[in-house]
Write a structure and sequence with these properties.
- The structure is a single chain.
- With about 290 residues, the protein is α+β, with helices and mostly antiparallel strands.
- It is about 20% helix and about 20% strand.
- The chain has 2 domains: about 40-110, Antifreeze-like/N-acetylneuraminic acid synthase C-terminal domain (Type Iii Antifreeze Protein Isoform Hplc 12); about 115-294, no CATH class.
- The chain has a 5-stranded antiparallel β-sheet with strand order 5-10-7-6-11, covered by helices on one side.
Length: about 290
Amino acid sequence: MSSRRTLILIGAIAVGAVAAFLIFRYISGIEDRALGDNELEMVVVVEGGDVEAGVSADEAIQQERLVVGERRRVDIPSGAIRSLDELSGQVAAVNLPEGTIVSSALFVDENQLGVSRARSLDEGNVAVSVSVDQVRGVANLLQPGDLVDIMVKLEVSETATPAGDGDVAAPTPTPADIGTFDQPAVYLYRKVEVFAVGQSLGTTTVDEEGNEVQTPGSGLITFQVPPEAAQVIASAPSGSLYLTLVPDDYEPGVVDPVLGFEVTGASGGPFPGALGQTPYPQAVESQEEEGGGS
């Protein structure tokens, strides 16, 4: 009997030991998971103010409303964005309050969101479109963000006389025997920014293999300019505009009228482009200050 009791006691002790070990492992697992859930990881978060729907991620990053910060693993949603680079070229799909951990579902490509393109215009500018053929539109090579000079071709006759005050004066050929240029061109504006080509604002798209796809060329060109310049551009006769592509560091200067034609605008003076002026007031003021200093 004593040996049987001894075996039963040993068995009970063994079962208790196994149970204790299993309980220890279970509790240890809970503690490990709890410690793991509280580990800090780097994710993109909204800080320094809310981000409204339609706001560009690039703009919010520049304003430091989107930053990379530490958050507990347990608080991080599925699809969380870990790097600001992942948001480049996207816009907020919904209003994001401060403190939001950004996930891939919260930002989308601008073309996927019904957002007014007016948000992309610089302050004080409006968008105005013109239609040009391949010859007048730099062979459809223009892309959003490019800079162009705008020329306008004017009708001329040997009997043309200047118009009255407040009107656009008709160009007068001098000398009169230079009749080969019946539509002399004059610079209307210089260094004008291309806002869109066709319906594209220049947003990068990729194909199925992940390669970037370039914006297809188009003869429908949209500029962003002040309202006064938009009014002048819209007043140009159909088919009279001619565009030339210029580099970013291009410095426009005064251009004399072709073959001595005297061409004046509504104010009685030369067209702004002939004086090397852009349609943007700040650039014009800068040019005038530089001219005054010299």
